[in-house]
# Entry
Amino acid sequence: MSLFHPVNLVCPQCEAPVTMMAVGSVNADRRPDLREDILSDRFQDMSCEACSESFRLQPQFNYLDAGRGQWIAAMPANRLRDHLELEDEARELFSTSYGDAAPAAARDVGGGLAVRLTFGWPAVREKLLVRQLELDDVIVEMMKLHILRSVESVPLAEGIELRLTGTDDDTGGYVFAWLETASEQYIEYLTVPAELYEAIHANPDGWQAIRDRLETGPFVDMQKLYMGEGRAAG
Ligand SMILES: [Zn+2]
# Structure
């Protein structure tokens, strides 16, 4: 089931009261249209009836796609700093819903699910895209680390992130974008040859230490490597 609940907001432009239906959980097996909306960057978008300003509610929901083997705790962009605490919460919720603490039938579903935690819309959209392209999301994060080391100037700063946004039809390469997380403003795009993915994929030993650090919990994102001590790999 996909669950919605009403939330009362104030229009950021004209301060008129706005009520919208916020999603608490998304079941993409039953509501494939909601998955499409996330991929199309229009999920939880709305416009003010008084001034027609459009704005978007930040994500705060659980996403299940049993068919594609995905379970995601999608959190608002501004909770990023709490990633360790929210990893624990996500693992516990998954455990009671589909993991060790769930009924047998739910555990059967849970066995095929990759558990992830994301912050902001671009990150959850990216996880769906990575799955659609049948890529390993850990390798996609490694590609980003490679990009950071390879380009001369990067607009890396708090609130700015690098996301896979699609593939290039002409070259088959992967298109990444630097963007501002909260506003979803795209700053610049770059295309990376598909061979980079293959090269990392073909060298698991060389990347094992990085993989261990990216897989310490459900927050599989290179941003965690830049935020404090984090969690010990192990
Ligand atoms: Zn308004």
Observations:
- The mean pLDDT is 93.
- Residues 11, 13-14, 16, 48, 50-51, 53 surround zinc ion (CB under 6 Å).
- DSSP finds seven helices and ten strands in the chain.
